[in-house]
Amino acid sequence: MQNLIENLKEYLDPVNDGQLRSVLDELSAAEIAEIWDNFSNEESLRIFALIQQDKRSDLISELHIYEQEHLIRELSEGITKTLLNGMEPDNLVDLIQSVSPELRSAVWEQLSEETRRETTFLLRFDEDDAAGIMTPRYAAILGGITVAQALKFIRKTMDEMETIYYLYVVDKLKRLNGVVSLKDILRANDSDRIEDIMIRKVIYVHDDTDQEESARVLENHGLLALPVVDRFNRLLGIITFDDVIDVIREEQTEDIYKMGAMGGNTNSYLETSSWGLVKKRIPWLIILLVAGTITTNVLHLYQDLLLAAAFLTLFIPVITQTGGNSGTQSSTLMIRGLATGELHFRDIGKVMLKEIIVGLFLGITTGVVILTRAYFTPPGIEFLPAIAIAISLCSVVIFATVLGAFVPMLIHKIGFDPTVAAGPLMSTVIDVCGLTIFFEVSKRILTL
Amino acid sequence: MQNLIENLKEYLDPVNDGQLRSVLDELSAAEIAEIWDNFSNEESLRIFALIQQDKRSDLISELHIYEQEHLIRELSEGITKTLLNGMEPDNLVDLIQSVSPELRSAVWEQLSEETRRETTFLLRFDEDDAAGIMTPRYAAILGGITVAQALKFIRKTMDEMETIYYLYVVDKLKRLNGVVSLKDILRANDSDRIEDIMIRKVIYVHDDTDQEESARVLENHGLLALPVVDRFNRLLGIITFDDVIDVIREEQTEDIYKMGAMGGNTNSYLETSSWGLVKKRIPWLIILLVAGTITTNVLHLYQDLLLAAAFLTLFIPVITQTGGNSGTQSSTLMIRGLATGELHFRDIGKVMLKEIIVGLFLGITTGVVILTRAYFTPPGIEFLPAIAIAISLCSVVIFATVLGAFVPMLIHKIGFDPTVAAGPLMSTVIDVCGLTIFFEVSKRILTL
């Protein structure tokens, strides 16, 4: 890729427009978008001018919002007009929703009557619902026509459709009655009527179905496209498999953010203002901080013990951190298993048994490691204290491993998303409980 | 879904075979697989018997390995034969690679000559490579034939193909020369020759291309299927969009495991033995423990300070935890941005500036919170000490926020996967540095 960028940079010399063009012709819109931010504003305008007409609208859909805004501002009105009206309607809606208000009206003015109608229709829906990712460019036919007529219809309209591999069969009120794949059509005879060969049990979603759930439906049925209907069963649009891949990627980002103790949207980092980042990060940071201050009280409670056995203080961070890590490992496994539908609350017996065995092993191993480290290396503590530390750590790890598995299952059972319970929140809970276990176990071993 | 399971359970009474069958007929193989483990071994055999023949092979592909083994063991030989030979070749290969050795030979004996040949071919490849997820059931034609001949060929062979929407054009040595979509074929005239209408610049991957990279290629080009060729450009098979969705889901699990400080495979939790789980968890747990013990030395170094100002001890866990959280937030944002290709090392200036601003804000806010908490609520410390704690926490959070962003970018730059640097490893590094900052700042404010 680095090579490609260098090649392009080299050809940006005016004499090489031809070569630049031929390199660009080889690349898909998505590939050009991926390297787009390697070029200066001026360079990117030069490149844009050399890209084939029909690839430009796809390219702009793939760019970040500030790059989109730059292009719209800088390009001549004629070019923007073709560009915007050539975009897939769902991508155009995304763009309109993201650009700054003053640019929005400029964009709107350049849309054709037809595009405006499509856009207005799509803007009615929530962007997180099934309808928010659908395209109205589906192929719909009436059930009464013949296979030959359907084929003729496909041939005539295919350039406007997002996919022609599924034809949706509707009645005069646009209610979805069936579906027929291009495969079924090729298999049938020219004179067969569509309603005799169509599948009547259509897999569909409603306009307000959550987009992640819609993604699962398409995925579970291995479909190329999924129809979206309103509550009167009228066909509104279709979701295609590439939209579903986008949804899965976004879901992935969301989950990773939650594990990193962040909420809110999954907008791109560079596009989010510093204030936006703060808003995303501060709520969990404060919640965890306040919860974490309980450790202050725990330590206060054991102040006498800490005075009597000062070496215990040295191990506070390593005990809490290791407890947190082992708890996070368990909760991560649970969260993932619950999310993919592999684990259910009824598996809790099996899970607990497994985690106890795993916890025992992890506890003993980490105990041996800390014993060796504490006894043999600086600062070096005596044998009995080292044993106390080792047994405490072992207990904390066993406890954390089991708790880390139990809590997400419980949270999921009562109907919440367990992802927030993983990572940071789990570490905080384990800090509090772990310190108590640490001090109680040490106290007994050291008979203080 | 719970409803569905209850319905099925109710119909499992022998008199209701008819109703059970009609419920099952409505469900896709994936949907049945999702609820499969709600039924006892005996129940699941009864249900299996009522499922339509052509859905059975899809169902078994979707099940967990222990459920697959159970079915293969319990079903009559005749049924297993049809079942196994009816599976998609790539799914069959996955099954053969997962079942226990003694069952493997039983499975092998029931395969037809044709299936064996296909399976042997696929078993040659690494399961993590492009070839590991491809199917050999693609539609290939010679460039010299006409559109009419191609259509006739599609009609004749479509039931054996995974997709007929792309036809791959090969020469006599099976070298990939072009591709033509069914759409292009419908657009063309019957007498046109395929090689005149085909696209010659085919997007393809090699058999040893990483499967995640192959997924990106299909995704970036919005393709339904992606051809896989060997180093002589001979067509070996195709990867379809549903395989790509599986790869993305698996990638998602892998990333989440890494953030939870676990390595190794992403096999299902229930299918992994306790020993397997230990192997997955122990390496990082020990590495982090050993790295974390550096905090012992830091604390030892500041023992005199801790004696002089004992209240500092009370805040050790909350300082390290909050530092860890803010660092993890930054590193999570970086890791995700680097993974999706939005961020690059050259953005480091912009990123650092942003993180410094964000860090300042987060630091001041958390400082105010801890000041309030420490001064006004039990155990309650005096004002100057509380100020010292607040300013220390503020410094630690600023430091952690900036470091948390810097380290993943650096690790990515030198060519490693930054995911391991997020979460746990970041927390450990921040523990060590954070404690030092905490003590140094407090020492100065308290003039000790």
TrEMBL record, chains A, B:
Pfam family, one: MgtE_N
Compartments (UniProt record): Cell membrane; Membrane
Keywords carried by this UniProt record: CBS domain, Cell membrane, Magnesium, Membrane, Metal-binding, Transmembrane, Transmembrane helix, Transport
Keyword Cytoplasm in annotation: no
Membrane disposition: Multi-pass membrane protein
Membrane-crossing segments per the record: 282-299, 305-324, 356-377, 383-407, 419-439
Keyword Transport appears in the UniProt entry: yes
Domain CBS intervals: 134-197, 198-254
Any one cellular-component term (Gene Ontology): plasma membrane
InterPro entries the UniProt entry points to: CBS_dom, CBS_dom_sf, Mg_transptr_MgtE_intracell_dom, MgtE_N_sf, MgtE_transporter, SLC41_membr_dom, SLC41_membr_dom_sf
Domain of life: Bacteria
Main localization, broad class: membrane
PANTHER family: MAGNESIUM TRANSPORTER MGTE
Family: Belongs to the SLC41A transporter family.
Quaternary structure and partners: Homodimer.
Role noted for this protein: Acts as a magnesium transporter.
Protein name in the entry: Magnesium transporter MgtE
Organism this protein belongs to: Oceanispirochaeta crateris
